[in-house]
Amino acid sequence: MRGHRKSKDIAAPLPFIIKIIIKEEEVIYMNNKVIIGIVVIAIVLLGVFLFAGKNNTTNTPSQQQEQTTKTPEETAGKTEKNAVTIKGFAFSPETITVKKGTTITWTNEDAAGHTATADDGTFDTGLITKGESGSVTFDTVGTFSYHCTPHPNMKGTVVVTE
Fold first, then answer.
1. Is the sign of the CA dihedral 94, 154, 77, 161 positive or negative?
2. Which of 29, 33, 37, 113 could tie 127 with a disulfide, CB 3.0–4.6 Å?
């Protein structure tokens, strides 16, 4: 009977041990949820900071840049010859020719944000959201290829003459 008693003594704490193991697994599972939550928050914050950094522009000595917001009423009916419209994920006109000292204004009519960024980095309008405009004054004669940073397949050219 003693042998039977020993097995009973050993079996008695098993439910207690099983409960401890289950509790430890719940703690590990909760810790994983907390870690995943922290990683998700970090990724979101990183995205916010990166997106906010896209709106910063720097001016070069030969070119001045400006971003403005115009209401549809202000832009309706105006046909500026020094204007580029962004619509349908394209620049229109794709190539624009202006005289030295001219300011070109890009106006975004798409729901997505766009930029007009020089391929050589000499100008960047920053992110232009729907209904907003970005302007650059060209004081240097030459041909300037540009693209939209978020959509690199969008391309355009500015030709500046004397």
1. negative
2. 113
Q: 0.85 exceeded by the pTM?
A: no
Burial of 114 (0-12, 13-18, 19+ CB in 10 A): buried
Please tell me the distance from the alpha carbon of residue 63 to that of residue 139, in angstroms, as a whole number.
6
For the segment 19-48, what is each residue's pLDDT rounded down to a tens digit? Answer: 666 666 666 666 677 778 787 787 777 666
- Coil, strand or helix: which one is 136? strand
Q: What is the CATH number of the domain that holds 142?
A: 2.60.40.420
Q: Which of 108, 102, 115 is nearest to 158 (CA)?
A: 102
- DSSP 3-state of 153: coil
Residues of the domain holding 24: 2-53
Residues 47 and 106 grouped into a single domain: no
